[in-house]
Write a structure and sequence with these properties.
Blueprint lengths: L1 H42 L4 H17 L3 H6 L5 H13 L3 H14 L4 H13 L3 H14 L4 H13 L3 H13 L5 H17 L3 H12 L6 H13 L3 H14 L4 H15 L27
Helix pairs in contact: 4-5, 5-6, 6-7, 7-8, 8-9, 8-10, 9-10, 10-11, 11-12, 12-13, 12-14, 13-14
């Protein structure tokens, strides 16, 4: 009996071991079979796996998009999303696309200062200065702290002979707590140019000096400063600027002419200041504004 029980136990143990072996074999067969199926599957062109991958990729592209239009469509009722899409399009020089986004943003929110500012840049890029002025006015009226729009507005006004109108706008930028130091410096320079254009010489000098500290000054810029000093009767400062620039730019006719006027005036000091033959430069480098942005 004991032997039979032992035999039965061994039989059950052997059966269990055999069963375990069969299971291992079955699992191995399934792995090999599945691997073989995948291998065969990949050999067949146009199989379902490849079609599924293609469909998944198409769905991913349609969901995430690869352009500004898809990004805006994800927030169809959000004007800020359209503004961001317009900024992105402008960075990529896709101006027609940017115009569509700006139009949609203003349709959703007619008082969007950023959208009006972008519209002003687009109009300016197209050479439509009158429309740009109108758009920048709207941008500033919607957001008095939009210093960039105010600076662009003032630059166009000066270019078009409206320097007197630009001065209040520029002073607002200078005193705005949200203006960056770079924006304040640009505003100081433009304000100085506006004062020159309106013959407010003594007011022009400190504004030009403040703007010149951070400006990449050209010879025409320095000529403007020297001319303002001369007209404000700051002959010492004017001579210093003129002689320094003549040493750097000996072929600049404006400085040579201005020096002649200065020498003549100092020789007749106490008499009526004679008419001078210099002109206020009208070129945009003196009142240049940065390129289009965001």
């Amino acid at each position: 009996m004991a032997v039979r029980l032992q035999t039965d136990g061994m039989s059950r143990k052997l059966f269990t071991q055999q069963l375990g072996g069969w299971r291992c074999a079955l699992v191995a067969w399934m792995i090999i079979g599945l691997g073989g199926c995948r291998w065969m599957h990949n050999l067949v062109p146009g199989n379902q796996a490849r079609e599924s991958q293609t469909a998944a990729a198409d769905m991913s592209r349609s969901t995430h998009g690869d352009g500004t239009a898809n990004r805006a469509s994800m927030h169809a009722d959000n004007p800020d999303a359209y503004v961001r899409s317009a900024e992105k399009a402008m960075q990529q020089e896709q101006y027609a696309e940017a115009e569509r986004h700006v139009a949609r943003a203003l349709e959703l929110n007619p008082n969007s200062g950023p959208a009006w500012a972008l519209k002003g840049q687009l109009e300016e890029h197209s050479g439509q200065d009158a429309e740009a002025i109108s758009a920048y006015h709207r941008a500033v009226s919607c957001d008095v702290q939009n210093s960039e729009a105010a600076l662009r507005l003032a630059a166009i006004q000066i270019d078009h002979g409206r320097a007197a109108r630009s001065a209040p706008v520029l002073r607002q930028v200078i005193h705005c707590p949200m203006s960056s130091e770079e924006q304040k410096s640009r505003a100081q320079w433009l304000l100085g140019v506006a004062y020159v254009r309106t013959a407010r010489w003594k007011q022009a000098i400190p504004a030009l000096d403040a703007g010149a500290r951070t400006r990449d000054m050209s010879s025409d810029d320095w000529y403007l400063v020297a001319m303002a000093r001369f007209r404000a009767s700051d002959f010492t400062g004017a001579r210093r600027d003129i002689e320094r620039q003549l040493a750097l730019h000996p072929g600049h006719n404006g400085f040579a002419s201005l020096l002649d006027d200065l020498n003549y005036t100092e020789s007749r000091r106490g008499e009526i200041l004679p008419a001078t033959n210099f002109e206020v430069p009208e070129e945009s480098p003196a009142i240049s504004s940065p390129p289009l942005s965001p």
